[in-house]
């Protein structure tokens, strides 16, 4: 289906930064570790015609709804035109959801999402995958006789209503969860073959939890749009330190015909140096320490924590990882501190204010978890509920003061990456 053919004047790869946050940072590190060339662009760049320079557009994870709003009609049209003219669109998790035929989606493939009430929304960790297409270039180097292969999945959505068409193919299927997998805050390995317990937990949590429900479902699909190709993955091949994922990324760059050039500098690689002692990083570290001391979460890898159901673990983790990266880059490049001083001062003031209230919220939520059941949006204590709404809004995809702070940090990192 795919040929390793270079498009004239279009032999570079771009990573679309907007609304990817933690997932964008992970992608940048994974690509840099794999020594793959790429440029980092934002929506303003692609609206100004920058996609004409590229043969591959990589859209990392993040909330597809936020990505859609940021793109607007003009940005969405630019991506569709890029693919129709022969570009390769590669979307991971939220980047995959953005490409679907759903409200606010790009409609690059005639595929929809499984409704929230019918899917397992909180799986996270290693999962075995059966590669479903021996001839696909994405799987070069993987033996079809040694199946399944393990990859990483972090709270993925689910594909549904795949058309019976030669233009859309399933090229990987979910298998069994790995030993480190969680569903919400439940270690999957401890409940293997205990269907009765899964059923009780699902009734208590009010969501589907048993990962057996996704066994055999599509994990990666691909298809055509005009002269271009679309590859959508619910697996995070862009998880740093994952050798199998890195192999897939290298295969993707090869089949898209990406030539040398773009960013892949040592400064963008994974965590190989200490960061500067910034106040903004201290504040984020303080929040992480509070959550750790109060048994609200623990680290799973250098980028992701595992948190108790009911608290905004991913949001706090995101603040920490982004500020850590800002601190790390500043320690390696003094010119960045000078050029971005106003932005860093603004972010520091916002972070200090946010930390004061967020620290109080975490302690209040610790008490609530001891006395009752809470979810990301429901809490019987009106004081806690009001503070949560102020900091994060009631939206699962986050908002409030957190989103305002996140946008500032996100812009700082984008400007840093562009200057390196």
Walk me through what this model shows.
- It is a single chain.
- Helix 7 (279-293) runs antiparallel to helix 8 (313-332), helix 10 crosses helix 12 and helix 11 (382-392) packs parallel to helix 12.
- This protein folds into two domains: 13-266, Rossmann fold, CATH 3.40.50.880; 271-419.
- The chain has helices spanning 22-33, 43-47, 64-84, 94-98, 195-205, 243-256, 279-293, 313-332, 334-339, 341-371, 382-392, 400-419; strands spanning 13-16, 39-41, 56-59, 88-92, 112-113, 123-131, 149-154, 159-160, 168-177, 182-183, 186-187, 218-225, 228-233, 297-299, 305-307.
- Mean pLDDT is 90; it is low at 1-9.
- The longest helix has 31 residues, at 341-371.
- The protein is 41% helix and 16% strand.
- The protein has 420 residues and is α/β, with parallel strands linked by helices.
- The domain tally reads 2
**What share of the residues does DSSP label as strand, in percent?**
15-25%
Give the fraction of residues assigned to helices.
40-55%
CA-based shape: globular
Number of helices: 12
Strand segment count: 15
CATH classification class of the largest domain: Alpha Beta
Structural class: alpha/beta
Biggest β-sheet: count, sense, barrel?
Answer: 11 strands, mixed
Low-confidence regions: 1-9
What distance separates the N and C termini? Answer: 37 Å
SSE series? EHEHEHEHEEEEEEEHEEHHEEHHHHH
CATH architecture of the largest domain: 3-Layer(aba) Sandwich
On the 0 to 100 scale, the average pLDDT is 90
Overall radius of gyration: 21 Å
According to CATH, the fold-level topology of the largest domain is Rossmann fold
**What is the CATH superfamily of the largest domain?**
Class I glutamine amidotransferase (GATase) domain
């Amino acid at each position: 289906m795919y040929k390793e053919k270079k498009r004239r004047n279009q032999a570079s790869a771009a990573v679309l930064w907007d609304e990817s946050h933690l997932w964008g940072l992970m992608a940048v590190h994974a690509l840099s570790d794999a020594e793959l060339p790429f440029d980092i662009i934002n929506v303003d760049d692609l609206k100004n015609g920058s996609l004409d320079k590229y043969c591959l557009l990589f859209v990392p994870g993040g909330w597809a709804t936020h990505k859609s709003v940021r793109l607007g009609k003009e940005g969405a049209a630019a991506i569709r035109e890029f693919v129709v003219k022969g570009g390769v669109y590669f979307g991971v998790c939220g980047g995959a959801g953005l490409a679907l035929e759903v409200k606010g989606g790009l409609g690059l493939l005639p595929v929809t999402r499984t409704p929230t009430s019918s899917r397992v929304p909180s799986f996270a960790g290693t999962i075995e995958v059966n590669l479903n297409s021996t001839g696909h270039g994405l799987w070069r180097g993987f033996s079809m006789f040694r199946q399944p292969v393990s990859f990483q999945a972090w709270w993925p959505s689910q594909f549904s209503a795949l058309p019976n068409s030669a233009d859309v193919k399933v090229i990987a299927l979910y298998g069994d969860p790995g030993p480190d997998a969680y569903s919400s805050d439940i270690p999957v390995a401890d409940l293997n073959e205990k269907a009765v317990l899964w059923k009780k937990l699902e009734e208590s949590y009010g969501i589907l939890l048993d990962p057996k429900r996704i066994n055999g479902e599509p994990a990666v699909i691909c298809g055509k749009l005009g002269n271009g190709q679309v590859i959508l993955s619910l697996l995070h091949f862009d998880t740093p330190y994952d050798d199998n994922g890195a192999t897939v990324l290298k295969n993707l760059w090869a089949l898209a015909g990406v030539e040398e050039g773009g960013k892949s500098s040592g400064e963008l690689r994974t965590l190989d140096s200490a960061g500067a002692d910034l106040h903004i990083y201290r504040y984020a570290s303080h929040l992480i320490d509070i959550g750790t001391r109060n048994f609200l979460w623990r680290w799973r890898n250098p980028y992701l924590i595992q948190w108790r159901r009911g608290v905004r673990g991913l949001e706090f983790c995101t603040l920490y990882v982004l500020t850590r990266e800002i601190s790390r880059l500043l320690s390696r490049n003094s010119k960045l501190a000078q050029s971005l001083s106003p932005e860093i001062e603004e972010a520091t003031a916002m972070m200090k204010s946010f930390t004061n209230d967020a620290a109080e919220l975490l302690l209040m939520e610790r008490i609530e978890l001891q006395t009752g059941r809470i979810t990301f949006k429901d809490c019987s204590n009106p004081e806690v509920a009001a503070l949560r709404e102020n900091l994060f809004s009631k939206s699962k995809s986050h908002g409030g003061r957190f989103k305002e702070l996140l946008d500032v940090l996100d812009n700082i990192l984008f400007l840093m990456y562009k200057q390196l």
